[in-house]
Specification:
With about 325 residues, the protein is α+β, with helices and mostly antiparallel strands. The chain is about 25% helix and about 40% strand.
């Protein structure tokens, strides 16, 4: 079911959107917490959003850009005031300049999103409150109500999307690394890890630390670890089996880097012909000094996707991430 209503109330300076969906409250919450799902509905269809930051904790910040059909760009930010999973999100919502700083020429509003269970699923109530009549009139004249209606109407498609998850691709017993298959060529791997985003970023970008945890199943070492730290750098990782000396490795280029939150790289198996993958690493701080690691992998074909997933990739990543936590603990 799409958004039930989007209504404005000049007397209370509010714009309220309400939506009911036949999914559990945890699923509805996840659509707002996961930036890759959020950007599929935040923004009208003709102005899709791309989130480059989404630190959904109190004091955190989100940054996004909506790109129009003629190439125009509208940037925005959220400053998180209150986050209580899976019940409430409170943010200060504003427009941003190209460098991410607040656009002082446009007003900031307060947005409170409340989530509740219903007999048929769950509901969100999103109330945006404006600082003044002038601010409300200015934003409504810019098409905020129509844009919000069009944007929220896409959420039901996101929630109804029958994606595969770890229940379809189980890892080891008790594993916490999850796999989500988005389409024929795209998957997302997620894992929550004890430690800050800065600590985990260092463990991904300092060779001595990478060699301590990025080993996959037991019995492997990493004799070659050439890390890419600047855009344009080439990295090279090689692993060796201690029992029989078998080796394999990957190489690629660092395309984008925003420490300590995001990195985009290419990846190709050494000795294998043909195109490789494009991997996006995203680190999102969580409450309790935890961080969500998310890796979005774009394969050149469904055949390569299925081949890689069939190698036990998720099991190996879970073993590595367990070592990552121990590496962070040993350095704390």
């Amino acid at each position: 079911m799409p958004v039930t209503s989007v209504t404005s109330d000049p007397s209370s300076l509010t714009l309220t959107a309400i939506g009911d969906y036949p999914v559990p409250i945890e699923r509805l919450w996840a659509a707002w917490a996961d930036p890759r799902q959020l950007e599929r509905f935040w923004g009208p269809p003709e102005w899709p959003a791309t989130f480059t930051r989404h630190d959904m904790v109190e004091g955190g910040r989100s940054e996004y850009a909506m790109t129009g059909p003629s190439g125009g760009c509208a940037r925005g930010y959220w400053r998180f005031v209150r986050v209580e999973a899976p019940r409430i999100i409170e943010v200060l919502d504003g427009f941003a300049n190209e460098d991410g700083s607040p656009n002082e020429g446009l007003p900031e509003s307060k947005m409170v999103i409340r989530f509740e269970s219903t007999p048929t699923g769950s509901r969100f109530v999103n109330v945006a409150t404006f600082a003044s009549v002038e601010a409300m009139e200015q934003l409504l004249a810019m098409g905020m109500q129509e844009g919000l209606t069009a944007a929220m109407a896409q959420l039901d498609l996101v929630l109804a999307d029958l994606r595969e998850s770890t229940r379809d691709h189980p890892g080891s017993a008790g594993a916490r690394t999850t796999l989500e298959v988005l389409d024929d060529t795209t998957v997302v791997v997620r894992r929550e890890v004890r430690g800050s985003a800065s600590q985990i970023w260092r463990c991904h970008h300092e060779a001595a630390l990478v060699q301590r945890w990025m080993l996959g199943p037991d019995g492997w070492t990493m004799p070659v670890c050439e890390v890419a730290t600047r855009v344009g750098d080439v990295y090279r990782y090689e692993w060796e089996n201690s029992s029989d000396g078998a080796r394999f490795g990957f190489t690629g280029e660092l395309l984008e880097s925003e420490a300590p939150r995001r990195a985009v790289t290419t990846e190709r198996m050494i000795g294998m012909d043909g195109p490789g993958t494009v991997n996006e690493l995203l680190l999102t701080p969580l409450e309790g000094d935890r961080t969500r690691i998310e890796i979005r992998i774009q394969y050149p074909s469904k055949e390569l996707r299925d081949f890689v997933l069939g190698t036990g990739m998720v099991d190996g990543m879970e073993t590595s991430y367990a070592r990552l936590e121990k590496t962070i603990e040993s350095r704390t």
